[in-house]
Amino acid sequence: MIDFFAKIKDNRIFQFSVVIIIIFNAILIGATTYQLDPFFLNAIYFLDYLITIFFVIEILIRFIGEKEKKNFFKDLWNIFDSLIVLISLVPIPNNSSFLVLRLLRIFRVLRLISVIPELKKIIESLLASVKKVFFVSLLLFVIMYVFGSIGSILFSETDPERWGDLGKSLLTLFQVLTLSSWETVMLPLQKIFWFSWIFFVLFISICSITILNLVIAILVEVVNHQK
Fold first, then answer.
1. Which of 6, 19, 158, 165 could share a disulfide with 65, CB 3.0–4.6 Å?
2. Neighbours of 176 (CB within 10 A)
């Protein structure tokens, strides 16, 4: 019995079917965001129930097919999948008062990560790099704090909406950090403070280029070590 389910669990057709069902489930979730005819909505909800049953059967096959049952729970991805399936079992009436429960169904799309080995490696690499990235992020925050304080002191009277206090300054610098229309932040100040370009060039050079590239380097290093 265990060997039979183990063969099904490791079968590529079975694994491919799981991927297809997850993608199909994602399409159905997206379809419910549109204004559809009640007939199609009812069909989607019916298919959702069938997909839920499929996921339950799939988890049971993986559990039964595991020779050492304790090893099933040692794998965090198995726990992740099981939790998502358990959430899907919560009955959800089709009305807005159960919006939160309906939103939880969306997390089933995340199962795509656990069934595709390449995506699992990426997530595992990200988790392995959390410690190093945390300290780089802390350094980034310190730099932003310094520049935010300077910006608030220098530019608060000229542009109070962006630099009125430290909180506003940090939000403004976050926009600059993303390089999203950052010139619209600098150009009005440039007309009044000729040296403002130095402030922005320094900030972008240190944060957007140096620090972010350092984060990427850490992630690449972790991925290479896990190969």
1. 6
2. 25
Tell me the domain boundaries of the chain. Answer: 2-115, 130-226
pLDDT digits (tens, 9 = 90+) for 179-212: 888 888 898 898 888 888 999 999 988 887 777 7
Residue 12 in tokens: 């590529």
What sign for the dihedral angle of Cα 149, 155, 156, 161?
Answer: negative
> What CA–CA distance (Å, rounded) separates 25 from 19?
10
* CA contacts within 13 A on the Cβ side of 11: 15
- CATH fit for domain 2-115, picks 1.20.120.350, 1.10.357.140, 2.70.50.60, 1.10.10.10: 1.20.120.350
The string of DSSP codes covering 74-135 is: HSHHHHHHHHHHHHHTS---SSGGGHHHHHHGGGGGGHHHHHSHHHHHHHHHHHHTHHHHHH
C-alpha span between 212 and 206 (Å, rounded): 9
For the whole model, what pTM was predicted?
A: 0.66
130-226 topology per CATH:
Helix Hairpins (1.10.287)
